[in-house]
Amino acid sequence: MVNVEGVTVTTVGSQVEADIIVGLLRSGGLRAIAIADDAGGQDPALQLEGVRVMVNPEDEADARALLADTQ
């Protein structure tokens, strides 16, 4: 389990997309996690507000730079 205390660096429309971004951030040496309000994955339709990708505050600048490089 990854311990992340909270800064949202992006919000995306699906868990799959969030997992890809988390993998990208982790491959860059950052700690990241995807958070969704979907009843623990039991009801993906509840992801109305998207899936948040979060990093630790000290990793925010690096995470945003890495994400900007991929666009």
Write a structural description:
The protein is of the alpha+beta class. It has one domain: Hypothetical protein rpa1041 (Alpha-Beta Plaits, 2-Layer Sandwich). It is 32% helix and 21% strand. The protein contains 2 helices and 3 strands, in the order E-H-E-E-H. The chain has helices at 15-27, 60-69, and strands at 7-12, 32-35, 51-55. Strands 1-3-2 form a 3-stranded antiparallel sheet, covered by helices on one side. The model has no long low-confidence stretch (mean pLDDT 84).
Q: Any chance you could write out the topology, listing elements then pairs?
A:
Blueprint: E1 7-12, H1 15-27, E2 32-35, E3 51-55, H2 60-69
Antiparallel strand pairs: 1-3, 2-3
Q: Class, according to the CATH hierarchy?
A: Alpha Beta
The CATH homologous superfamily corresponds to: Hypothetical protein rpa1041
Based on secondary structure, the structural category is alpha+beta
Number of helices: 2
Strand arrangement, largest sheet?
1-3-2
The overall number of domains is 1
Key words describing this protein structure:
single chain; 71 residues; alpha+beta; three-stranded antiparallel beta sheet; 32% helix; 21% strand
